[in-house]
Amino acid sequence: MPEHPSHARKRKLLLRAAAKVNLHLRVAPPDESGYHPLMSWMCTVGLFDTLTLERAEGDEQIGPAAPDRAAADALVHLECDDPSLPRDKTNLAVRAAIAVIDALRSEQQTPRQSWPHNQPLLRIWLEKRIPVGGGLGGGSADAARVLLGLNRLLELNWPIDRIRAIAATLGSDVPFFLEGPSGVVTGRGQVVRPLPPPRPRWVVLVLPGYGIPTRDVYRTFDELRLGDRQAVDAQPDWNQWTELSAGPLMQRLINDLEPAAFALCPRLANLRQQLEQALARPVRMSGSGSSLFTLFDNFDEAQDAVARITNSWPVKALATSVAPAPEDDLADQAN
Ligand code: C5P
Predict the structure, then answer these.
(1) Could you give the dihedral angle defined by the CA atoms of residues 181, 247, 255 and 239, in that order, rounded to the nearest 10 degrees?
(2) CA 145/CA 330 separation, integer angstroms
(3) What domains can you pick out in the chain, each with its CATH number?
(4) Is 128 an annotated catalytic residue?
(5) Among 30, 141, 224, 243, which has the highest number of CB atoms less than 10 A from its own CB?
(6) Which of 186, 215, 288 gets mutated to test ligand 1 (max ligand atoms within 8 A of its CB)?
(7) Where are the strands (E) in the chain, listed by range?
(8) Distance from the CA of 215 to the center of ligand 1, in angstroms?
(9) Which residues form ligand 1's pocket by a CB distance below 6 Å?
(10) Cβ atoms of 193 and 183 closer than 8 Å
(11) Which helix (H) or strand (E) holds 147?
């Protein structure tokens, strides 16, 4: 009997990975391991990378063709329209795919020997639109989409907890992107509690055109002896916060990494100060920078702000939606 089309095995998936902003980010001094416990309200925004995942033809099993890790790397082939991006396993999208392959192998779910050594099992085409080093979680968003995409493409039917465990090994922002579009993230980023998106549904993103390495920001944070454990442990009244309009909500939002990023990068501090003056509203940094944002209740106002920013500063700015609806080949899933 012919297979119903909706059950036919797909060879290709088109995925859209949305960026995030940290609306609110509280950071504690480092624990014994040097890592900083945090508490953050994160929300996706309408700036997307696009990934196409393609399974190779033929026997699609991830055969243990070669026992070593180098061969696992060779099974994943990444192409990207941004030549400055690494395409090897230092790219988080590749690392995510390798993590899935490694997990399959360690479970010996892949008994067949037929996969040829030198043939990629999986091709990934990445159209990079989320700036690198911008505090918008682009690499993590890509990685999370790859994890969910492979679960579908390879028909793994893994429960979400299994995918969450892999996500947590890839980076502190990755678990959030499995859940999206809005949630409170705690610990090392591995605990994500869904929260309704903020009431203002528009955001202006300011992309200064240079990145700031996350590691350097945390190092400066320690040098400046910043961080407050109590602020990380205390939770605001989220139900009230999600109801606030743009003005009063922006007044409450804090990013504890700002002093460290601004100490490292004084021109970003200047830009933020000038933008706050020109727009007469708070402007916050996302994550460890360099991107800045401010929320709007109304799209026309947001667009007007973009025009004013791009007329006066040599930066990119865009007005886009907060918590956009997912529109890709995984859109029928909860995440
Ligand atoms: O996990 P992620 O890739 O975002 O972290 C990059 C680096 O930033 C980590 O290796 C660590 O040095 C630092 N970091 C930290 N505490 C956090 C998040 C990141 O010390 N909560």
Answers:
(1) -50
(2) 9
(3) 5-194 (3.30.230.10), 202-321 (3.30.70.890)
(4) no
(5) 141
(6) 215
(7) 12-27, 38-55, 76-80, 122-127, 182-187, 191-194, 202-207, 284-285, 292-296, 316-321
(8) 6
(9) 35-36, 38, 171-173, 214-215, 218
(10) yes
(11) helix 138-153
What pTM, to 2 d.p., does this model score?
A: 0.92
Q: Which atom of ligand 1 is nearest to the CA of 27?
A: 21
173 given a catalytic annotation: yes
Q: How far apart are CA 144 and CA 326, in angstroms?
A: 13
The b-or-e profile of 46-56 (16+ CB within 10 A means b, else e) is bbbbbbbbbbb
Nearest to 184 by CA among 17, 29, 20, 24: 24
**Ligand 1 mean position to 137 CA, how many Å?**
12
Taking only the tens place, the pLDDT of each residue in 196-255 is 999 999 999 999 999 999 999 999 999 999 999 999 999 999 999 999 999 999 999 999
